[in-house]
Amino acid sequence: MSTPPANFRVIIVGGGPIGLTAAHMLSKAGIDFILLERRGTVTPQDGTSLAIAPQTLRVLDQLDLLEPVRWIDHAIRKKNIVTHKGVLYNTTYPPIWAEEDHGRPYFMVHRPEFLETLYNHLSDADKGWIFTHKNVVDIESNPDGVIVKCDDGTEVDGHIVIGADGVHSRVRKEMRNLALLKNPRATVNDEQPLEASYRCLYATTDLMPGMVPGESWGAHGSGASTQVFVGRDRTWFFVYEQLDWPTRDWKKYSAKEEEEFVAKYGKLAMTERYRLKDLYAVKRNSTLVNLEEGTMKVFSFERLAIVGDAVNKQTPNVGNGYNSGVQDLVVLTTGLRKLLDSREVGEIATENVQEVLQEYQALRERDAKDICGKSGQATRMQAWNTWGLWLFERYIMPWGNMDRRVFSKMAGDIIRKGRVLPFLEEKDLRHGKVPWVHFPTVGPTKVETSSVS
């Protein structure tokens, strides 16, 4: 792994959903990669649900992943909204609205099953370039490429690093270090660039009597909110609480602190019938975390770039995280493929790579900030952060089809502008009432409007 590569090589740091999706995308683009994952596996069994939006389903179609992912979709189509005491006051249908507007609904998958699907549908050759137990501790950038160093002594040579290593990104830290080493006055991301105003308990449990697969629930109220997604064979639940004050410090909660959190909100409604204490008593797993928010000022340095949560972290209430990261990858992969089509590997200088990475930030920064802002707005609206949000969410939205219009405004614009890989055909392109903005340059761009997911 320490031999300088003859072909252009991308080093992916992080083997989560975004890292594995990057592997698929680069493979389809004909670009060599090595993926380094800190943990002992890229298919861990922890984690909860993950939402896949219509624009992302278009990209998965291009990657030949749509049908495999369809098999693990839990088909959540309806949301019931209750007060903290469990009084039902609204029912909404965002996945159905998405299908009406854009030709596809949202998919809801179990994160471990999704990781297994992504990994299992890589070729054997591609799987051979995935390495676990590789904890990155240092990155060198030079005129010809990069060297990534791991704590076990491994050194990996490549031409560019893509940091898909999450909210506490090592690649982001190395970008900052390298930039300041070169120029102490350089514009860099803050050492602690993200701020948390909320924390969240998320967990998975078995189906409970009376729960209907395909439904979701949300309890909205002052200072806290909940989400429950009822899948085929399991239920995922989330409890959000506003912190006393925002913090940039990373916090790892103890088991005792989690128990205290549950005791505080034990009687909080999760559905009309169940309270938090009921679901928590039969949980399979759970985690209490702070919810960082923010978009980086700097997306790249020289031959290093960050994607997904490493560059743009949102609160999870509306499920934008993975979908935003896929858009990062689409822009980056498209730029790298154009670069490789225009130059031989030996002719590619750091300046050429920087042009691609600067275009990546130019194309993604505005949308990333917009997504982060809308996600945070949803979190605050569900927790009635102000009296105006309480009035709007509790009394105005349930009347006059207002929630349908809010969905189209907050989510519809993000969905319709979703980018796709220009060099790969969509095998099953769908259209709804709202036209798509971007299409591949190969294959059909128009089909009959369809409501079949």
Automatic annotation (TrEMBL):
<dbReference type="GO" id="GO:0071949">
    <property type="term" value="F:FAD binding"/>
</dbReference>
<dbReference type="GO" id="GO:0004497">
    <property type="term" value="F:monooxygenase activity"/>
</dbReference>
<comment type="similarity">
    <text>Belongs to the paxM FAD-dependent monooxygenase family.</text>
</comment>
<keyword id="KW-0285">Flavoprotein</keyword>
<feature type="domain" description="FAD-binding">
    <location>
        <begin position="284"/>
        <end position="341"/>
    </location>
</feature>
<dbReference type="InterPro" id="IPR050562">
    <property type="entry name" value="FAD_mOase_fung"/>
</dbReference>
<feature type="domain" description="FAD-binding">
    <location>
        <begin position="9"/>
        <end position="175"/>
    </location>
</feature>
<keyword id="KW-0274">FAD</keyword>
<protein>
    <recommendedName>
        <fullName>FAD-binding domain-containing protein</fullName>
    </recommendedName>
</protein>
<dbReference type="InterPro" id="IPR002938">
    <property type="entry name" value="FAD-bd"/>
</dbReference>
<keyword id="KW-0560">Oxidoreductase</keyword>
<dbReference type="InterPro" id="IPR036188">
    <property type="entry name" value="FAD/NAD-bd_sf"/>
</dbReference>
<comment type="pathway">
    <text>Secondary metabolite biosynthesis.</text>
</comment>
<dbReference type="Pfam" id="PF01494">
    <property type="entry name" value="FAD_binding_3"/>
</dbReference>
